[in-house]
Amino acid sequence: MQSKKRCNFIRDLDRFHLVMDIIDRLPQTGETGQALKHQLSDKLLEHKSYINQHSQDMPEIRNWRWQPH
Fold first, then answer.
1. Alpha-carbon distances of 12 from 3, 20, 28, 30, rounded to whole Å
2. Roughly how many angstroms between the first and final C-alpha of the chain, as a whole number?
3. Nearest-CA neighbor of 20 among 47, 39, 48?
4. Residues lower than pLDDT 50 in the chain
5. Cβ atoms 43, 16 nearer than 8 A
6. What is residue 67's predicted lDDT score, i.e. its pLDDT?
7. How far is it, in rounded angstroms, from Cα 60 to Cα 45?
8. Closest Cα partner for 36 from 54, 24, 49?
9. What is the Cα–Cα distance from 43 to 16, expressed in whole angstroms?
10. By the 8 A CB rule, do 61 and 40 touch?
11. By C-alpha distance, which of 66, 67, 48 is closest to 58?
């Protein structure tokens, strides 16, 4: 069971899941946070569908680079 938990943790360790986790931990984000969480969830579903069809990440995910400000 421990191995499965670790696998799920690693699989969900991306910027989408991290932001969704932050929203869950900060209730003051309110409706705005919940709307963002819904958008991120939709994007993850879209991404999963794309992977199933094309066997690779969506270009916006695959080509994303951190842009320091």
1. 14, 10, 23, 23
2. 41
3. 39
4. none
5. yes
6. 86
7. 14
8. 24
9. 9
10. no
11. 48
50 and 58 Cβ atoms separated by less than 8 Å: yes
Q: What is the pLDDT of residue 10?
A: 56
One-letter-per-residue 3-state SS of the chain: CHHHHHHHHHHCCCHHHHHHHHHHHCHHHHHHHHHHHHHHHHHHHHHHHHHHHHCCCCHHHHCCCCCCC
- Residue holding tokens 């069971």? 1
Model pLDDT, residue 22: 95
pLDDT at 13 (0 to 100) = 76
- Residue bearing tokens 């958008």: 39
| Closest by CA position to 20, among listed 40, 35, 6, 5 | 40
